[in-house]
């Protein structure tokens, strides 16, 4: 079991879904958590639940597109926990649109959160890691859509390819500082995000019934079932701990066997 005791970890998009599951598990391992989300109330509920279970957590409302807010999130983490050891850039949004219908506005809506938000998070965390000394870890949430382009998710896929690229570039840029950057690529995870994607498939006439798109995609996993948020906990624990110290620039597929790269 990796030793995460007192490791200071901030997770964006941790108010629900994959981020919340990772946060609760790492807090149970003894890490000190910052639960960050654009929906402050969701972040507060997750932090309250962690504290009720005997863990350490603060909640911060943050929009990852807003550099000043991201800076505040990191500063509040350092104030509450003493330092920042790991930042999970996990916040993300999905939008389902047929390729020819994607507008400039749609492009910016999706990529501003999923790609620019990750760049800002990485930059602000890396500044703090360098000022502190002793290295640090970036863990980004990419996707199977960071390795394959999907219809009707072209702009979402492009934003996740960007996450993989940012992960590789930062690994090359900051290895000399002892800073690692890796990414997790989930497959089809039962979270509120997939409800939005599933609705989008129905709205565009690609599927008819609820969960049809979810079931269709999940059927591609050789392990024979869709993912639950908890399926991402093991890799998150590994990437947050010293067990992954000699690994950087990697984007790990944790998708039940959907995409082999
Ligand atoms: N669910 C899946 O099947 C799946 C698959 C691959 C990758 N992912 C990625 O995993 C990550 C988490 O997804 P999820 O399924 O848990 O989604 P989710 O919608 O359940 O949770 C995402 C969280 O991010 C928050 N958020 C959205 N925009 C934000 C912003 N601008 N600033 C701060 N917080 C913001 C939301 O409020 C929400 O709490 C995302 O990056 C997503 O793209 C999900």
Automatic annotation (TrEMBL):
The keyword Cytoplasm does not apply. Coiled coil: none annotated. GO terms for molecular function: oxidoreductase activity, acting on the CH-OH group of donors, NAD or NADP as acceptor. Residues 7-187 form the Ketoreductase domain. It comes from Azospirillum thermophilum. Pfam families: adh_short_C2. NCBIfam families: PRK07231.1 (NF005559). It comes from the Bacteria. The keyword Signal does not apply. Belongs to the short-chain dehydrogenases/reductases (SDR) family. GO terms for biological process: fatty acid elongation. This is Shikimate dehydrogenase. Keywords: Plasmid.
